[in-house]
Amino acid sequence: MENKQQPQEKVAFWSKVKIAVATLLLLFVLLIIIKNWNYVSINLVFKSFDLPLTFILFIALAIGYFWGTIGSYFKQKRNSKKENLPNE
């Protein structure tokens, strides 16, 4: 019986760097979540909530990402309209 090994593809250096950075970022985010799991009172106009600080940070990041994406979309749309206008 012959045991032949299949040739393995080598992982590029920058792929390894990306994996290492992503792992460190994930560990950093998990550390922030663990450290900030204390509850904070949020007072709105008609209601008050007690939520974990991590949840509030996540909501703020999600809303910021949403508004940034929407703004980028409209800016790109406006720029493409300017490029398509005939020059007079």
Ordered list of secondary-structure elements with their pairings:
Layout: H1 13-35, E1 39-43, E2 48-52, H2 53-84
Antiparallel strand pairs: 1-2
Overview of this structure, please?
With 88 residues, the chain is mostly helical. The protein has helices at 13-35, 53-84; strands at 39-43, 48-52. The protein has one domain. It is flat and about 75 Å long. The mean pLDDT is 84.
Short description:
With about 90 residues, this protein is mainly alpha-helical. It contains 2 helices and 2 strands; from the N terminus they run αββα.
Largest sheet: 2 strands, antiparallel
**Element pattern in H and E:** HEEH
Cα shape: flat
Rg result: 24 Å
By DSSP (H or I, 4+ residues per run), the number of helices equals 2
Total individual domains: 1
Instruction: Report the end-to-end length measured between terminal Cα atoms.
Output: 79 Å
Structural category is mainly alpha
Q: What is the tally of beta strands?
A: 2
Please state how the strands of the largest beta sheet are arranged side by side: 1-2
Beta-strand content: 5-15%
> Percentage of helical residues?
55-70%
pLDDT averaged residue by residue: 84
Low-confidence stretches: none
Key structural traits:
two-stranded antiparallel sheet, 88 residues, 11% strand, mainly alpha, 2 helices, 62% helix
